[in-house]
């Protein structure tokens, strides 16, 4: 998708294959780190690993690594902190799927954690992943200033906590079967999924020593792609089929959920997606050539098929 | 209770009233800090506060403050980190009480969180308390070295996570209706309740700038009072009545739980309590006069009526 308001500098054009390879390289780096945790053997570890190894796009750690690169750092050193974001994401999925929450039996085509290990065990696996995430965030990381690292811990906790993700999940729980207006819908998304994406970008930039100006630029970028991601999700649910998506299509309609298309119409949602994608590109200006991957990532989110 | 193997120096004798007052002063300091969190209004905050304000002995923050004092520090500066321990303890109680876990409808004489707010909400309140605890642990605290603070974050996460409290809770869940031997019972206690008590003492000492020798001494002290606490709990369940305890007496017997008295006999459990209390006193030697309160706390745990 080309940008319409903000032209992208010519040097940013790269072919899609190269982007795909970089995306996979980042994800592989994350996966290899995730595979080597020295957890004790037992049901708890099995249950944590079951959900952690279920795949997914690793979008949060990838975003953090790309943000670190964009401000001039390299990713290997900050892998523990970056992977903590995937643990937090995974814990939130495990708890979301519980009978007392969204009551989903399947996740990414496999049985949900609580269907395999039991509800009590799933609650504990989520608790353990969340807690271990903070152990990772506080790991010694070479070349990272300890004041900045403490700030990163604090910001991740804030983004994941009552004023962020958990707060959004509570709003979502309370909004079941209720029609939301656009402002309310955006608030749920901003808290439930947006806050962690934003902190992923900030975390990478903070740990890699980025300036406040660059941290703020990445914040605006992540806010924009966070909403773009959600709008695209809503559009795909409407326009795609279950086989392509790997999950039931048209489920928003069946569940009478408020979505961008239901509130703005399909054309309105597509326009909004374009606006958010353009905002994402624009936010990156200050980062120059080191942000190539992030430009491609914004397009990828808007163009993905599932 | 006097010490039989290790005589306590004469200057440590203080009257019980003075200890009670100090205990209350510490707890009041904690309560006043807990009462002023700037959480957003709504069900989530209500639910978090419901459990957080349910009282309890505040033993973990008190232990941390006393440990900080024992190594030469003062407590006010490290209150955020110290109170994080109470949030972690409270989250663990909320999740423990859930139907999928211990299925308790009451806690400290009040309805359990999930009975008042619903299961999904209780899961989220626990998640939010745990997450906010790490925000507190990473707060700027005047006079605290940031390397030490990161170590404290890491140690608390480790003590609360899969190799600590959550791991112990999983063992406990798997041990239901199963007879444990003494080694297994101690392992459950060491992980489920001991790890957080130990890290409370370490946290106070680490943040207040204590030497490794003093941190280790406080570790041994906390290990001993942790087990003493559990042994005393088991003895009280057997010897006391429901009115005094504020919870049903003889419940271990009814639930066929493995306890110290069931595995060592009542006399054996009382001897073990004395041994652990003596170990606690002995561990404090290196701390001298600044550990007066901790000596009294060990006796208080062994002598308490509920």
CATH homology superfamily of chain A: Farnesyl Diphosphate Synthase
CATH topology of chain A: Farnesyl Diphosphate Synthase
Terminal CA distance of chain A: 16 Å
Beta-strand percent range of chain A: under 5%
Question: Runs of chain A with pLDDT <50, length 5+?
Answer: 1-13
Count up the helices of chain A.
Answer: 14
How many E-type strands of chain A? 2
In helices, the fraction of residues of chain A equals 55-70%
Largest interface: A-B, 50 and 50 residues
Largest sheet of chain A: 2 strands, antiparallel
Q: Which CATH architecture of chain A? A: Orthogonal Bundle
Oligomer: homodimer
- What is the residue-mean pLDDT of chain A, rounded to a whole number? 91
Helix/strand order of chain A, N-terminal first: HHHHEEHHHHHHHHHH
The CATH C-level name of chain A is Mainly Alpha
- The outline of chain A comes out as globular
Total number of distinct structural domains of chain A: 1
Rg on CA atoms of chain A, Å: 19 Å
Q: How are strands sequenced across the largest beta sheet of chain A?
A: 1-2
**What structural class is derived from the secondary structure elements of chain A?**
mainly alpha
Family (chains A, B): Belongs to the FPP/GGPP synthase family.
GO molecular function (chains A, B): (2E,6E)-farnesyl diphosphate synthase activity; metal ion binding
Catalytic activity (chains A, B): isopentenyl diphosphate + (2E)-geranyl diphosphate = (2E,6E)-farnesyl diphosphate + diphosphate
GO biological process, one term (chains A, B): terpenoid biosynthetic process
